[in-house]
Amino acid sequence: MSVPNYQSFMTPLLRELADGCVVRLKDIDTKVYNQLGLTPEQLQLRIPSGKQTYAYHRLGWAKTYLVQAGLIEQPKRAYCNITDIGTQALASGKEIDNRYLSQFSDFIAFKMRSNKDETEVLQHDLANSSNEQTPQETLETAFETINSALTADILDTILKASPEFFENLVVDLMVAMGYGGSRKDAGQATQYSQDGGIDGIIKEDKLGLEMIYLQAKRYTNKTVGRPDLQAFAGALDMHRAKKGVFITTSSFSKEAQEFTGMIEKRIVLIDGERLTELMLEHNLGVSIKQVFEIKTIDTDYFSEE
Length: 305
Hints:
CATH class of the largest domain: Mainly Alpha
Number of helices: 15
Largest sheet: 5 strands, mixed
């Protein structure tokens, strides 16, 4: 007997969080399973890698989707609690699934991070058309969804870290991208609170023939505007610098983006989404959990010519 899909775990999970307490998922998993009426045989079934049971694996993904939609929040690692939106969802009496979550803009944004058109995302979820995909398409879609959830986790973790940590992260990222050589020789974060508008300095090349100046803003809801870019450009003038990188966990206003094209200096803008993409691409702050290989026939081996 198969285990219900992850969407079936959403409503029971919210019910177990209804008291508003902050709990660990593994402390309430059995209660969720009991709500679903899972049998001992179902609870023993494991995913192909053997690392988790299907039940806990799907419960974890139910939590991930609810977090992305804003029905659950994670105040610290491995802990979660229901939000006001989640409480309202429970009170509505409706079944909580992807169709229900699609009314929330944060959930749509989460789905769209896999680079799909918004209409296609909604149609895919509402029509449950995944069976129309080829096996490789299914695997690639799953890969994109996993990475989308991971980038959201990375950004959330950054926002909970200290400003000093974020400034060092920015320098680490530039080094990981190949600027200046080793972390020791390539660059440094400036002394916190005494940076004069500059949060980091990095060599553009190993010889340090030219320096790139960094600005890091760890914002949640605030958009970086033109005044922030003007201040950064002024700081570059103080250092007689021509190149800068402005990195934020939020986003840049249209006016800020236009400003960079109006000045002689070269200032590159990296917003929160691009930041997490670069961290994934250069394996900064992440580790490889599992590797799948897709193999095809080697026609050269079978050639008898």
